[in-house]
Amino acid sequence: MGDGALGRIAALVRQDGRLLVRDPSPLIVRTVMPLLLMSFMQPLFRAALRADDVRGATGAEQGVPGMAVMFLFFLVNIVGFAMFREHGWHTWDRLRAGPARPFELVAGRLVVPLVVAVVQLAVVFAAGGLLFGLRVTGSYAALVLVGVPLALCVVMVGMALVALCRTIAQLSVFANLLALLFAGLGGALTPRSALPDWARPLAPGVPSYWAMRGFSAVILDGGGVGAVLLPAGVLCAFAAGLTAVTLFFFRAEHRKLSWS
């Protein structure tokens, strides 16, 4: 990738950064909401973990990573809106007319959401320790090794939906549906052992399952980097597959509608 391409990608990143600084409220809400919900649901998570023979459980061991994973996938909407707003503002044709190639237009929209996703995870986990007594018995490096590819998965789900959806209404519906589906099947709302019988064989087919498996290995089992290599690798595979879907279906000439 030449200096020209890097410069064009950097310009798009700077634009997204400026827009985020102007109105950070949607991202602040998505960071506060999991903590607010956790304050109500901690007793339920505590009971579920103790029923699963986790001694001394406070509920934060399930609730903090579960709420973090669930609300991270609601960022998919933000990723999609960043692309759709160019069509709504009628600036997409101007971008296409410039020297930036389609790959650069996609890559330039990845960086800010990826950083935001990683920061959101970090803030929720840190606040979980301060407010709800979350104790991480394993390696913090292992948490990072799971969290970064999880954030990349979230961003690429958004990009794949941008490539597949024609209207912002379609994207919003599918993004919210996937967030709830991933939360349920992945064990974000309840320990994996408490999933319904019909859901257990389906759970490994969603990235949130592997994220929760990795986080649980660190938080509950005291695991290190070696304990999360499989979950982290599967999350990377999900991200690679979603990238392939995006590159295959994304067409810069496709008109997107910011209304239904």
UniProtKB/TrEMBL annotation:
Any one annotated GO CC term: ATP-binding cassette (ABC) transporter complex
Report membrane topology.
Answer: Multi-pass membrane protein
Q: Name one GO molecular function term.
A: ABC-type transporter activity
Q: Which Pfam families match?
A: ABC2_membrane
Q: Where is the signal peptide?
A: none
Q: Which residues form the ABC transmembrane type-2 domain?
A: 25-253
Q: Name one GO biological process term.
A: response to antibiotic
Q: Which family does it belong to?
A: Belongs to the ABC-2 integral membrane protein family.
Q: What is the name attached to this protein's record?
A: Transport permease protein
